[in-house]
Design goal:
Layout: H1 5-18, H2 25-35, H3 41-56, H4 58-65, H5 70-80, H6 86-89, H7 95-107, H8 114-117, H9 122-132, H10 134-144, E1 150-154, H11 161-170, E2 175-177, E3 184-187, H12 197-200, E4 204-206, H13 209-218, E5 225-228, H14 235-243, E6 249-254, H15 257-261, H16 263-270, E7 275-279, H17 286-289, E8 295-301, H18 316-319, H19 322-340, E9 343-353, H20 362-371, E10 375-378, H21 380-386, E11 397-399, H22 401-404, E12 409-416
Parallel strand pairs: 5-6, 5-8, 6-7, 8-9
Antiparallel strand pairs: 1-3, 1-4, 2-3, 9-12, 10-12, 11-12
Helix pairs in contact: 1-3, 1-5, 3-5, 5-7, 9-10, 13-14, 19-20
């Protein structure tokens, strides 16, 4: 497919923007498209695909390209990642760029150092090796180099998975049921569904299958009092509310008002009336203290590196360091300890992250259990089996894209005895 000059120029500009790494990539691209309202939907999709492909393969691309020039990196991304031939680009190339691309293609098959070939920072490559072993690390790195499919969740208050499958398939979308989550749908590729009527009226929501399985582990009952302690934009809040059939009382806490405000329109179309969003100043806010010992189910979807989501958010591996990891671990421990004060005797506390690093997962839970003898761990595999889900990752939930097809997730289920 022959590419137009303005398409390559637009991708160059987008790579120049995301390359700064001063914003999350999706926010940077949203700002970029806002600055270029003349761009049609086809070109926007082309530019977004190219910019995220660059971020996923940034280290190996820049090493082979031997340059940080956005224009040349755009050409390298088009040829190596998006599989365009030099002929597709020919009308937009200068003679020196043709020569450069020829040399780049000759270097494409060079052997690179392992971390470079994996497109990961050295420190993260080493930590993954220690946590997973050589073979599993390599498989995970390969999975992170590929774009993720689009996962959706059917709102059980408004429809069924069978009805959604039939409707979306009738539109020609390559949709299947997710293998584990009972409300999940998966669509190959990244079709634009932002204005789809099923999204607009709340019958479906965008939500990764791993995130949905965390909700299964919370297992809220209709009459429960439930707290989503780090609700963010409310994806898991909406799932918990639907599981409660809009009964009981569900608090959505977050320390960032702007983040929590994104729940408002989603809540309006969800059909839920039992959700109470509340901004808190910190994990020891008075709004938290007044609920101490009263809550049946507490979900701590802790702020984390997000490395489990690198297929979707590849910029995270370039924007965070080992120092960030240490700071996050300290915050995670504080948040879990504060959230635990809410749980009443017999209640359930679920600690979850979208990370694959033990520093944010097992280390936090193990330290908590040592310090909190009133809490005991439940077996996640047994809980999933009770829910009719044939998934056994051991006593704690451990999801990986190369094994399970969804984002990387971790969860531990803890119950309070007294």
């Amino acid at each position: 497919m022959t590419l137009r000059r303005n398409q390559i120029e637009a991708l160059t500009a987008a790579i120049r923007r995301v390359k700064r790494l001063d914003l999350p990539a999706d926010a940077a691209m949203t700002a970029f498209f806002r600055e270029h309202p003349e761009m049609g939907s086809h070109d926007r999709a082309f530019v977004a695909d190219g910019a995220f492909a660059y971020l996923r393969r940034k280290r190996s691309l820049e090493t082979l390209a031997q340059t940080g020039d956005p224009r040349l990196l755009a050409l390298a991304t088009l040829v190596r990642e998006l599989r365009h031939s030099v002929r597709d680009l020919d009308d937009a190339l200068k003679s020196k760029e043709r020569e450069w691309l020829g040399a780049f293609k000759a270097r494409m098959h060079e052997t690179l150092p392992d971390a470079v070939a994996a497109d990961l920072p050295d420190w993260l490559w080493e930590r993954l090796g220690a946590a997973l072993g050589t073979e599993e690390r390599a498989a995970l790195a390969r999975a992170w180099q590929m774009p993720a499919p689009l996962d959706l969740r059917v709102n059980a208050l408004k429809s069924t998975r069978e009805a959604a499958l039939a409707a979306l398939a009738a539109e020609g979308l390559p949709v299947t049921a997710t293998p584990y989550a009972p409300w999940g749908l998966r669509i190959a590729g990244r079709p634009s569904l932002s204005r789809h009527p099923w999204l607009a009226d709340g019958r479906i929501e965008v939500q990764d299958e791993g995130s949905q399985l965390v909700g299964v582990l919370v297992a809220p009952r209709r009459s429960d009092m439930v707290v989503d302690f780090c609700a963010g934009a409310g994806g898991k809040t909406l799932l918990l509310g639907a599981m409660m059939r809009s009964q009981g009382r569900l608090y959505a806490f977050d320390t960032v008002a702007r983040r929590l405000s994104r729940l408002t329109p989603r809540l309006a179309r969800s059909g839920l009336s039992n959700v109470h969003p509340q901004v808190i100043a910190h994990e020891r806010d008075s709004k938290v203290k007044r609920l101490a010992g009263k809550i049946d189910r507490v979900l701590v979807d802790a702020p984390c590196t997000g490395f489990g989501t690198l297929r979707r958010n590849p910029d995270l591996k370039w924007r965070q360091s080992e120092d960030d990891l240490r700071e996050l671990a300290e915050k995670q421990a504080r948040i879990l300890a504060a959230a635990a004060t809410l749980v009443k005797p017999g209640g359930r506390l679920v600690y979850a992250t979208c990370s694959v690093l033990p520093d944010e997962n097992d280390a936090i839970v193990d330290a908590f259990l040592t310090a909190q003898p009133a809490f005991a761990q439940q077996d996640v595999a047994a809980l999933l089996a009770q829910a009719g889900i044939a998934l056994d990752t051991g006593a704690r939930l451990r999801l990986y894209p190369q094994r399970h097809g969804c984002d990387g997730f971790f969860a531990a289920v803890l119950t309070r005895s007294a």
